[in-house]
C-alpha cells in the first residue's frame, strides 16, 4: 500500500509537471489554427460619383490553404459582380451600395474556412462637404443629409463633438479632416456652418498640411453660413481667401442650405438666392481695398493665412479687453484681485480650457500649493527654494491631472498647456497673501479673482465681439483710451459706497 501510494504520488507529480507543457502545446495549436484562418479585407473608396468605376480590391486579405476563392456581391440585390481578387462595378444610379466579400480557403485535407467582410460606398450625382460645429443641431444636419440623398446629393458632414473649451472647435475640426484626408476630393462645393471663422481656419490648416488639396481649392466655391453680420465675417475671411484661392467665398444665411442642395451648380445656386431675396455677399479679389490705417487688419490676416491658429489670435486680441475689464472692476467697482496680470491669466485659462475645467485646475493648484507649504513649514527653508519646491510639486500634480483628463477624453493643445504652466504660478500669490494677511483676505482675493475671470469669459466668449475684433482689430486701440479715462478716475468706488453707507447717512442727517 505504501509503494502504491508512493507511485501514485510520483505519477501525480509527473502529470502536474508535464500538464503545463501539454496545455502550452494545445494553446500553440489553437493559436496556429487561429492564425491559419483567412481574413477578408476590402480596399475601396467610401464615395464616388455616378457613372464612375469602383475598383474593389481584396489583395490585403489574409488567405490560407492551397486553394482560395473570392466572391463579390452587392448586398442589396445579391448580385455577384466578381470572383477574382479584384472586382469592378460601375453604378448607374445614386444611393448607398454595400459590397460583400467572401473569401474561402481549402487545405489539402479538404477542410474549408471562410471569412466575410462588407464595405459601404455612397454613389452621388454631386457631393457637398458640410463643416459644422456644435452650435448647429445634429438633427437639422441629418435632415439636410437625408434631403440630399433623395436627390442624389451626398452631404458629408464634418462635425466634432461639443467641447467644454470655448476655443477648441478649430482643433477638433482639423483632427476630423486629417483623419479623412480624401473627404475634400470630388466635391462640388464646401459649406462651412460654424460660429465665427473656426471652420475656415480649420480648412486652411488642413490644406496647409496636405499640398494636394491646395490645387483642388482653385476649382471650389466655399459657402459660409452665418446668422451674424455678413460684412464683418467677410473682412475676417480675407486671409482665408488669399491663402486658399478658391473661385469665390459666398457668405449667406441658413435659409440658403436647401437651395444649395437643390441647385445643379453654383451659378444656379446664386441665381436662386437672388430670386428668393436671401442676403448674400461674395468675397473675391476685388471685395476689399487695402487702406493705410488697416495695418492691424493686414497683420491679423497675415497671421491667419500663414498657419497661426485662430484661437491664438483671439487670445492675443482678447488680452487687452480682459485687462481693461479688470481695470474697470478694480478702479470703479472696487473689487480686490491678485493684481492685474494674475486675474488676466486666470481668465485666459478659463477661456482656453472651459470655465469649469479651468476652475478645477485653479483650485487644485491652490490646494496642492497650500498642502506642500504646510508640510514644509517644519523644514525652515529659505523663501526662494521653498517656492521652487512648491512649483515642482504643483507641476507634477498638473501632469497627473492632465493625464487623468486625457484618459477621460479631454484634449490639451499647446496653447492650453502653456497657460496651465503660467496658472501654476498663482499658488505663490495666494500663499504670500495668506502669510501676510491671513486666510480670510486670501480666500476673498481668490473668490473675487475667480468671479472677475468668469465675467471676462462671459464677455469675451460673446461671438459678436470676437467677430468684430477679428474683422476690425483696430478696435483694440480703444482700450488704451478707456484705461486713460480709468487712470484719471477720482470718484469713490461702488464698494466704498456700501462700506461707508453709515457715514453718508449721518452726513445726510446733519444737513
Spatial strand order of the main sheet: 9-8-10-11-12-13
In terms of per-residue confidence, which ranges show pLDDT below 50 for 5 or more consecutive residues?
1-35
Radius of gyration: 33 Å
Structural class comes to alpha/beta
In total, the number of strands is 13
Helix content estimate? 55-70%
Query: What is the total number of structural domains?
Result: 3
Give the count of helical stretches: 21
Structure summarized in a few sentences:
The chain has 21 helices and 13 strands.
Task: Give a description of the structure.
The structure is a single chain. By secondary structure, the chain is of the alpha/beta class. It folds into 3 domains: 47-123, Sandwich (Immunoglobulin-like); 126-297, Rossmann fold (3-Layer(aba) Sandwich), CATH 3.40.50; 310-498, no CATH class. 55% of the residues lie in helices and 16% in strands. It contains 21 helices and 13 strands. The chain has helices at residues 2-36, 138-150, 169-179, 198-209, 211-217, 230-236, 238-244, 257-262, 266-276, 295-304, 310-333, 341-353, 355-376, 383-407, 414-423, 426-437, 439-460, 463-471, 478-487, 494-499, 501-510; strands at 47-49, 54-57, 67-74, 79-82, 86-89, 95-106, 112-124, 126-132, 153-158, 189-193, 221-225, 248-252, 280-283. The strands form 3 sheets. The protein has a 6-stranded mixed sheet with strand order 9-8-10-11-12-13, sandwiched between helices. Helix 12 packs across helix 17 (439-460) and helix 16 runs antiparallel to helix 17.
Question: Keywords, please?
Answer:
about 500 residues; alpha/beta; Immunoglobulin-like; Rossmann fold; 3 domains; six-stranded mixed beta sheet; five-stranded mixed beta sheet; about 55% helix; about 15% strand; flat; disordered N terminus
Amino acid at each position: 500500500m505504501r509503494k502504491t501510494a508512493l507511485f501514485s504520488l510520483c505519477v501525480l507529480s509527473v502529470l502536474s509537471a508535464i500538464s503545463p507543457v501539454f496545455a502550452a502545446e494545445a494553446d500553440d495549436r489553437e493559436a496556429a489554427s487561429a492564425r491559419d484562418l483567412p481574413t477578408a479585407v476590402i480596399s475601396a473608396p467610401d464615395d464616388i460619383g455616378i457613372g464612375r468605376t469602383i475598383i474593389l480590391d481584396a489583395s490585403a486579405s489574409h488567405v490560407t490553404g492551397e486553394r482560395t476563392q473570392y466572391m463579390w456581391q452587392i448586398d442589396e440585390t445579391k448580385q455577384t459582380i466578381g470572383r477574382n481578387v479584384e472586382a469592378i462595378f460601375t453604378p448607374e444610379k445614386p444611393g448607398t451600395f454595400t459590397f460583400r466579400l467572401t473569401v474561402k480557403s481549402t487545405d489539402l485535407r479538404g477542410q474549408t474556412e471562410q471569412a466575410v467582410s462588407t464595405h459601404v460606398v455612397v454613389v452621388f450625382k454631386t457631393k457637398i462637404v458640410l463643416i459644422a460645429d456644435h452650435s448647429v443641431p445634429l438633427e437639422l444636419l441629418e435632415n439636410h443629409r437625408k434631403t440630399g440623398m433623395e436627390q442624389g446629393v451626398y452631404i458629408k458632414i464634418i462635425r466634432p463633438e461639443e467641447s467644454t473649451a470655448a476655443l477648441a472647435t478649430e482643433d477638433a475640426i482639423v483632427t476630423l479632416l486629417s483623419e479623412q484626408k480624401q473627404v475634400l476630393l470630388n466635391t462640388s462645393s464646401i459649406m462651412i456652418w460654424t460660429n465665427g471663422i473656426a471652420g475656415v481656419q480649420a480648412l486652411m490648416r488642413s490644406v496647409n498640411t496636405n499640398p494636394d488639396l491646395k490645387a483642388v481649392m482653385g476649382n471650389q466655391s466655399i459657402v459660409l453660413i452665418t446668422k451674424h453680420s455678413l460684412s464683418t465675417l467677410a473682412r475676417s475671411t480675407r486671409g482665408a481667401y488669399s491663402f486658399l484661392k478658391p473661385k469665390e467665398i459666398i457668405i449667406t444665411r441658413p435659409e440658403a442650405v436647401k437651395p444649395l442642395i437643390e441647385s445643379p451648380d453654383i451659378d444656379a445656386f446664386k441665381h436662386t438666392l437672388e430670386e428668393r431675396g436671401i442676403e448674400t455677399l461674395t468675397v473675391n479679389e476685388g471685395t476689399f481695398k487695402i487702406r493705410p490705417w488697416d495695418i492691424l487688419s493686414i497683420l491679423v490676416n497675415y497671421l491667419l493665412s500663414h498657419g497661426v491658429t485662430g484661437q491664438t489670435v483671439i487670445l492675443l486680441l482678447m488680452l487687452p479687453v480682459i485687462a481693461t475689464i479688470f481695470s474697470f472692476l478694480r478702479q470703479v467697482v472696487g473689487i480686490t484681485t491678485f493684481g492685474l496680470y494674475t486675474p488676466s491669466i486666470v481668465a485666459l485659462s478659463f477661456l482656453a480650457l472651459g470655465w469649469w475645467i479651468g476652475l478645477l485646475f485653479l483650485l487644485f493648484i491652490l490646494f496642492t500649493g497650500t498642502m506642500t507649504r504646510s508640510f514644509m513649514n517644519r523644514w525652515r527653508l529659505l523663501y526662494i527654494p521653498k517656492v521652487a519646491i512648491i512649483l515642482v510639486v504643483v507641476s507634477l500634480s498638473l501632469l497627473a491631472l492632465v493625464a487623468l483628463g486625457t484618459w477621460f477624453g479631454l484634449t490639451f493643445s499647446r496653447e492650453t498647456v502653456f497657460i496651465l504652466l503660467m496658472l501654476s504660478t498663482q499658488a505663490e500669490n495666494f500663499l504670500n497673501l495668506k502669510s501676510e494677511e491671513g486666510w480670510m483676505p486670501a480666500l476673498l482675493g481668490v473668490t473675487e479673482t475667480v468671479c472677475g475671470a468668469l465675467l471676462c469669459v462671459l464677455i469675451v466668449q460673446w461671438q459678436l465681439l470676437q467677430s468684430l475684433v477679428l474683422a476690425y482689430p483696430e478696435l483694440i486701440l480703444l482700450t488704451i483710451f478707456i484705461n486713460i479715462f480709468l487712470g484719471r478716475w477720482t470718484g469713490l468706488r461702488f464698494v466704498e459706497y456700501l462700506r461707508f453707507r453709515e457715514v453718508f447717512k449721518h452726513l445726510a442727517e446733519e444737513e
